[in-house]
Amino acid sequence: xxxxxxxxxxxxxxxxxxxxxxxxxxxxxxxxxxxxxxxxxxxxxxxxxxxxxxxxxxxxxxxxxxxxxxxxxxxxxxxxxxxxxxxxxxxxxxxxxxxxxxxxxxxxxxxxxxxxxxxxxxxxxxxxxxxxxxxxxxxxxxxxxxxxxxxxxxxxxx
Length: 158
What we know:
By secondary structure, this protein is α+β, with helices and mostly antiparallel strands.
């Protein structure tokens, strides 16, 4: 039996060291998290996607008493961006979470969101940068494939 290893490359930066473009995306995701509907988990997630045309579209998690009926912030933002600008590539996605007003350390998206993010990356024909935002620091990944190295995509349907 052979054991293989995967390495994931990401940058860890202080929030204060973000460039102006990424700082605006961080802030948009943070504001979106304050709009989350999370009466059950109290885990409020905000996401902001920047498109190639400079537009920033936000989303926040929407819970439902029938848990599978809710939707994560990442998918809300990506689906809204795709609906409003179907032909504009996605560039970057920032994700942040807070609970009872306290910003969490950077969180990773769930598996379903990773799959949707991968499809968005493929749809854009370019890497989708991902900013996993925390109170003081941000992890920046240059592609969704870093979060989902063994992925299922359109070529698997052939």
